Amino acid sequence: DVSDAAITDITPSSIAGSTLTVKDGSLVISTVALTSKSIVGGSAGVVVYKAGLDVGNTSNLVLNSYRVDVDDTNYTAFTDNNIAKLDLYVVENGVSRLLKSLSNGITGDGTTGGYVNFTSLDSTNRVLKAGVDVEIEVRATFASTLNDGTTFALEAANTAGNIVVKDSNNVEVAESLAN
Question: Which of 10, 42, 106, 126 has the fewest C-beta atoms under 10 angstroms from its C-beta?
């Protein structure tokens, strides 16, 4: 009707629907303890950080960035001089998917505040399927010459912006982290 007259006779006069529950995407990150290793110069593919990712059942997630920090007591060897390359992988059912490789990507070289931030991750491999638990690994390729007796350990910090994950609606997910 284009007459602008009010329409008063509407059938049905009400519509009943089912109650809907909307659930947000979720992610629980649990650091996996690694055994101490002795490394020789030139070693490649050495897992230096590992965590389990428990992806909730409601939504696929997109991992946008992942930052690992050096442990405050074991940090002296975490330098670009000792580590030629760091690779970030998602491992699902034993299959590794490369997310990002970094050379000379350590910020705060050899200090207590050192970290590496993996951003601009592979657009296909960064998708985490709803309900499918995976692991995330940082693997190192070491320089051919290393300083004797120095150590480092990595951890993820539960600080805003350190790990950025979004759900299928592009809404940021508040992950929980257990180191």
Answer: 10
